[in-house]
Amino acid sequence: MRGEETQILGCGVDGTICLPGTHSKWVEVRGGRIERFSTAMTGETYAVLKQHSILGRMMEEGAADGEAFAQGVRRSGDEGGLLHHLFGVRTRGLMGELAPAASASYLSGILIGHELRDRASTEVLLLGAPALTARYAQAAALLGVGTRTLDADAAVRCLFRLASSRA
């Protein structure tokens, strides 16, 4: 972790905090202390599959598709596991069940769905860029997991508090 500790301290909350991104961080905070930490390569996996795999060659640029994303999140709970679900992006495209412009959203839903299923409990505190935290909140809601979005400017407050305490 780099600046994430500062953001977490700036929030001043206990619970399961998710910092979504290229390498999503999952942090358990109790009593103002980081007790557990893990990382998921969800964003990087999405980028690699979209840019350097057969899945990406089937995708077209387009606006995010909320329904395709939701289908991907729901699919993440089916039998077969992540690798099988990923191949399904290709299969659904070949069978005409998934439009090329919707494939990226479906892929994102599968990956984020698997990440949340592996790590989320009853409530997840989201900390990060608004567009990405909104996507995680949408996926969590589909899985019945509550979310709260924390202030992404928490790092500034933390640094101010640290500087003030030294004065």
Brief summary of the model shown:
It is built from 8 helices and 5 strands. The longest helix is centred in the middle third of the chain and has 17 residues. The mean pLDDT is 91.
Describe the structure.
The protein is elongated. Strands 3-2-1-4-5 form a 5-stranded mixed sheet, with helices on both faces. Helix content is 54%, strand content 17%. Helix 5 (81-94) packs antiparallel against helix 6 (103-119). The protein has helices spanning 4-11, 42-52, 54-57, 66-75, 81-94, 103-119, 130-142, 154-166, and strands spanning 15-19, 24-30, 33-40, 123-126, 146-149. It has a single domain (4-166), classed as 2-Layer Sandwich (Nucleotidyltransferase, domain 5), CATH 3.30.420. With 167 residues, it is of the alpha/beta class. Strand 4 (123-126), helix 7 and strand 5 (146-149) form a beta-alpha-beta unit.
